[in-house]
Amino acid sequence: MKYVIIGNSAAGIKCAETIRENDNSGEIVILTDEIYPAYSRCLLPDYLAGELDENSLAIRELDFYRKNNITVQYGVKATKIKPESKEIVLDNAQIVSFDKLLIATGSRSLMPPIPGLDGENIFGFRTLQDVKHILHVLPTVRRAVIIGGGFVGLEAAYAIYGKGIEVTVVERLSQILPSQFDGKAAQILHRDMQQEGIRIITGNGIKEILNPTLWQKLFGKKGKGVLLDNGETLQCELIIVAAGTKPNTEVTQGTAIKVARGIIVDEYMETAEKDIYAAGDVVETVDAVTGKRQLSPIWPNAVVQGRIAGLNMAGVTTPYTALIGMQNAVEFREVPAMAAGITEPETNDEVIVVEKERQNKYKKFVIRDGKLIGMILVGDIRQAGVYNALIKNRIDISRTKEYLSRDDFNFGYFLASGVYC
């Protein structure tokens, strides 16, 4: 049996590892367009900040591939899949055959259609190579602009700011972290970061990037200009684009594989083409809270999906159990925060809110039909694991909901009431 995996990150590595645990003789080949052994994208902000070295990014020991008899082809891009002949065409014209295939191509930085965004010293913040490009130009940088006020953008901003660089974050929506937190939670985190010294502009998009030649011609200044929709112009030498991601689904073109925003898979992570599976940021799966099919581009979900795909590819029939698609945690300075599930309630939902503004603490719980379906925790994320278990397992909390917001809340309340997670 020959297993081929396109992608060398969370889902791909876990899939390969799982296959080897269940098939010690099959051939495993990993194809990756990167030139590095598997690393954690979650740790890239710490690497940029200088808190970790490159070796610390590795998610497996350096001899992982050798020990598991896995062949890796670095720096090659899969451009086409031929399901009928079970072949993959690479960008170097090489043809790779397979018996079972996993598409774990992940996603890439979304580049908004902003004039001038293709200029120099403008980078995404998705790969190790992106960060190396940023580090290479940092000695010449005094001011940086971050496009996007989501998790990735704020993490990049904090890492850059820690190196003594003046940083401005521009978010076109009315608040930072618009996909994860409500306005009140975002306001607390916004205030905390600005107190640190990072400037944050919300409700204002970017009209154009004035690259060095034009910027100098117009204003006689070095660097480049970022022209905002309201007419304000920011001066900088570096721009980091963190305006979202786009699943890398292009390799599926010309096949029967169904794609919406991401690749559609069944409960066994198999696509519409037999023996071709998909996992990680590139796929859509059913969310445990909403019951709807959606992207879930977070690391833990990619690992679980990779494992399920690996089991099924190796002949161990195992269905995928829906996970919480929206689940994020962050701590930029002194205020930790976490969000999970549905945080914007519908008309008939019950909402419990506890706010302690002076302490930068805020809790919000969304309850539907007696079950916790979403939460936001700011300033105090203790017992977050219990809340997550309640959401994922759809536990009826009708008799215990009044305890959710208590500072001493813990699993003991459910033991006492006879309700178990």
What does this structure look like?
This protein folds into 3 domains: 2-108 and 247-313, FAD/NAD(P)-binding domain (3-Layer(bba) Sandwich); 122-241, FAD/NAD(P)-binding domain (3-Layer(bba) Sandwich), CATH 3.50.50.60; 335-417, FAD/NAD-linked reductase, C-terminal dimerisation domain (Enolase-like, domain 1), CATH 3.30.390.30. The chain is 23% helix and 28% strand. It contains 10 helices and 26 strands. It has helices at residues 10-22, 44-49, 64-67, 128-137, 151-161, 183-196, 212-219, 299-313, 384-392, 412-417, and strands at residues 2-6, 27-31, 70-73, 78-82, 87-90, 95-97, 100-103, 107-109, 122-124, 143-147, 166-171, 199-202, 206-210, 224-228, 233-236, 238-241, 245-247, 263-264, 276-278, 283-286, 293-295, 327-331, 336-341, 350-356, 361-368, 371-378. The strands form 7 sheets. A 5-stranded parallel beta sheet has the order 3-2-1-7-19. It has a 5-stranded parallel beta sheet with strand order 9-16-10-11-12, covered by helices on one side.
Radius of gyration: 23 Å
CATH topology description of the largest domain = FAD/NAD(P)-binding domain
Distance between the termini: 40 Å
What do we call the CATH homologous superfamily of the largest domain? FAD/NAD(P)-binding domain
